[in-house]
Amino acid sequence: MKYQKFEDLPVWNTALELAEKTFNTCGDKSFAYYGDLRRQMERAALSVSNNIAEGFERRTTRELIAFLYIARGSSGEVRSMLHLLERDSRFDHLKSQRAELMALVRSTGKQLNAWIESLEKRKASGTSAASH
Fold it and tell me: How far apart are CA 117 and CA 113, in angstroms?
């Protein structure tokens, strides 16, 4: 399927939901003494959707792939921080939110992996990049 704008991309919408729910979760009082963790989680989560959007707007397969890899890296950052929260009992009351965020970040990662793989195959076969 050919997408005309990044707002129509399923992976961008999943990533945006990840950012939104990350911001909501990080608003919890338990993050009050962990301002750096809170800001880093929020930045990393927001970076996922932003890099998908920026790569899409670049309009070349090479640049899109590069930005999708950055988005995938940011999703890994979020996943890593969620694992840290699981190990800290001060965040035990956020178990359901952590599980929801983990599901979203894993879904985003899977979608990014599939898209990157598809684009790389297309690029290798010489197929046009016009059909992001």
Answer: 6
Give the helix ranges, DSSP H, for the chain.
Answer: 10-26, 35-58, 61-87, 95-125
- Largest distance between two CA atoms of the chain: 52
Half-sphere exposure of 111 (CA within 13 A, CB side): 18
| Amino acid identity at 8 | D
pLDDT, tens digit, 9 for 90 and up, residues 108-120: 999 999 999 999 9
Q: CA nearest 18: which of 128, 85, 131, 101?
A: 101
Tally of residues, the chain: 132
CA 64, CA 82: separation in Å to the nearest integer? 27
| pTM exceeds 0.85 | yes
pLDDT digits (tens, 9 = 90+) for 30-65: 998 888 999 999 999 999 999 999 999 998 999 999
Question: Cα 34 to the chain's mean position, in Å?
Answer: 22
**For residue 44, which of 25, 30, 23, 65 has the smallest C-alpha distance?**
23
